[in-house]
Amino acid sequence: MALNTEKNTYTVVFAVIMVAVVGSVLAFLASALRARIDENERFEKQQNILYAMGVNENTPESGVNFIPTDVVEGMFTERIKKQYVLVNGELEEDDQAYLIDMKKQLDALKKGGDARLPVFIGEKEGEEVYVLPMYGKGLWDAIWGFMAVDKEMVVQGVYFDHKAETAGLGANIKMRFFMDDFTGESLLDAGSYAGITISKTNNDPLNQDKADNEVDALAGATITGNGVSAMIKETLKVYRPYLETIRNN
Asked: Is the pLDDT of residue 227 over 80?
């Protein structure tokens, strides 16, 4: 007997079967590719940290060029001399600190709990640099990144990324022309931690003034810019006790 494909029962049964089949295929692929996905996530974290240190394949006229994935693990091991987690003001060595989810740690702090805050000590041109992870909120969703500073609290480089900022506007926080402006900026103002503000009234389009604690805002991305400013200040807030030990050494 031929099936009556016009009956509601057929439609429901067909839909259930398709959902089961597609779900099974997706679950299988996710399981089969889990190792590759995890590997790519490790490489991406390593690339981002190194980029913030200024370790990349940029040329004067290029965009953002990371260390390639086939060599990034070796470069990460070479340039990152120590990985720590900061727990209740104490440093603990952890060679997997770069994999820590910063959002979860900040959420734990806000709830009054303990957190494991990653710290990376790298080497750039024979000098130590200190790389701190950042996490915040943009216009539509999460923003995050890394910031590298020297012992004088001068920024050596940054890397920003986002989940859902507007293309051509807030999404430009991960563009080189924006990130490059942070290099050389001080986190201090008259000895106090001031952070760096994304300012619409900076009046320094070439970013020549490195002592004003400001960089030019992105056109049409005020809320995203405010989110970056707040993210930097939040980073300084939670890492300040550790940063003080660097300055006093």
From this structure: yes
